[in-house]
């Protein structure tokens, strides 16, 4: 009951924050305001309590699909919140708030699809690094969507209400590549620690996850290489970002859907 209360409070605040963000955009006001930041911080705190209680079960961890997605949403929101105190990325809330509310609601109302496990410290570190890597790359994918939309608007000489809340396209792209760099470093550490903590990828049904993660790592490496040497930007950078993130989605979310929901 306590978990549901905290989760419901977070969902309510996400909805209120989303409406406040929409109104700020519609009224052409700055998205960075104290009320929105306060609502966001309160929602994140309630979400964190609910996520911790959802994952903790019988002294172990419940790593079911929807519980992990709710945790990813929490980490992404927290990263965006603290980054938004210094960087103009408040527009991401337009997508993050409804996604967070829906994923948290599903996590609260769904049953576990995976047995509780007792996790050693080394595996906990690997899981934490992986979640941070996926979160940074997810934020980069959302940032790429906004940059793509902004690029399209500029090419067609449009400037709608949302466009006026965004910084210059060069600033958006610079932030995009900073996010990818951090995500790529964390993804590298995730792969290295994964090879250390797991003995048999085939027996533990992890080979597909590892394969897609390596493909995603290679895609991001090519993108960063192209950016450094040839100054890749615009649609090319956006497309490569989403190709890499598609590998992350297929490797982690896709594999968990198949294993937990289809095969089971």
Instruction: Compute the number of structural domains.
Output: 2
- Per DSSP, what share of the residues sits in E-state strands of 2 or more residues? under 5%
Major β-sheet strand ordering: 1-2
Question: Largest sheet, described in full?
Answer: 2 strands, antiparallel
Structural class: mainly alpha
Order of H and E elements: HHEEHHHHHH
The geometry reads as flat
> Whole-Å distance between the termini?
28 Å
**Number of DSSP-assigned strands:** 2
Quickly count the helices. 8
Describe this structure in words.
- The chain has a two-stranded antiparallel sheet with strand order 1-2.
- The model has no long low-confidence stretch (mean pLDDT 84).
- Strand 1 (56-57) and strand 2 form a beta hairpin.
- The protein has 264 residues and is mostly helical.
- The two termini are 28 Å apart.
- Helix content is 77%, strand content 2%.
Short description:
It contains eight helices and two strands, in the order ααββαααααα.
List the helices and strands and how they pair.
Blueprint: H1 2-26, H2 34-55, E1 56-57, E2 60-61, H3 65-84, H4 93-109, H5 121-155, H6 169-197, H7 207-230, H8 234-263
Antiparallel strand pairs: 1-2
């Amino acid at each position: 009951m306590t978990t549901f209360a905290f989760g419901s409070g977070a969902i309510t605040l996400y909805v209120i924050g989303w409406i406040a963000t929409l109104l700020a955009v519609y009224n052409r006001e700055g998205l960075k305001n104290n009320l929105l930041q306060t609502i966001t911080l309160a929602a994140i705190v309630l979400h964190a309590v609910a996520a911790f209680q959802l994952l903790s079960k019988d002294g172990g961890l419940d790593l079911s699909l929807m519980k992990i997605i709710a945790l990813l949403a929490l980490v992404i929101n927290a990263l965006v919140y603290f980054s938004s105190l210094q960087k103009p990325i408040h527009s991401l809330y337009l997508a993050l708030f409804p996604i967070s509310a829906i994923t948290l609601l599903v996590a609260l109302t769904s049953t576990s699809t995976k047995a509780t496990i007792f996790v050693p410290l080394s595996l906990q570190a690997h899981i934490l690094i992986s979640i941070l890597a996926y979160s940074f790359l997810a934020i980069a994918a959302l940032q790429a969507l906004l940059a793509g939309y902004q690029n399209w608007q500029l090419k067609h000489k449009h400037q709608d209400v949302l466009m006026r809340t965004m910084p210059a396209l060069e600033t958006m792209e610079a932030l995009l590549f900073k996010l990818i760099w951090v995500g790529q470093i964390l993804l590298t550490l995730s792969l290295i620690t994964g090879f250390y903590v797991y003995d048999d990828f085939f027996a533990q049904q992890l080979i597909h996850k590892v394969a897609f993660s390596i493909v995603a790592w290679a895609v991001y490496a090519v993108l960063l290489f192209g950016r450094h040497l040839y100054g890749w930007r615009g649609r090319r950078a956006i497309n490569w970002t989403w190709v890499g993130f598609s590998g992350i989605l297929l490797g982690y979310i896709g594999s968990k859907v198949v294993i937990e929901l289809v095969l089971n």
